[in-house]
Amino acid sequence: MSAPTVGHQTILGNLHLIFGNFLKGKQCKVFFAPFDVRLAMETTDDTVVQPDLVIICDKSIMMKTGCQAAPDMTVEVLSPSTSMKDRALKLELYQRTGVREYWIVDPEEKLVHTHILVNGRYYISCYTENDKAPVQILDGFEIDVAEVFAE
After folding, report:
1. Structural domains of the chain, with CATH
2. pLDDT at 33
3. Against a cut of 0.90, is the pTM above it?
């Protein structure tokens, strides 16, 4: 797999700074890939994914190189090679394993799609550069979407 593009890394860096600054001194922590997320499945095997960005509020799920249960939030920045996987496979996986909030960031369209878990099912909202996207797992926090795509 090839390295992410400069645009992808810029968006990821922006998100890490935005979340990191807000979370400074708080219980929840933000991490970026590579960071192993071990999602317990129905079998004895674990499924391991590496989301672009992860927010974890429960320190008890932390391991040396990642976490061992569903994080509170994951973020994927779309790229041509991972778009289908992020929009379908990971979406279904995160929903099934209890990730409370899943964001898909689309660099081409400059959109943020938020997926909020309610009673085991994701409810989707879409935000443009003119919007502020609320972060449901972090009370009162919202992100100016234009800052996500700033160069």
Report:
1. 6-29+71-148 (3.90.1570.10)
2. 87
3. yes
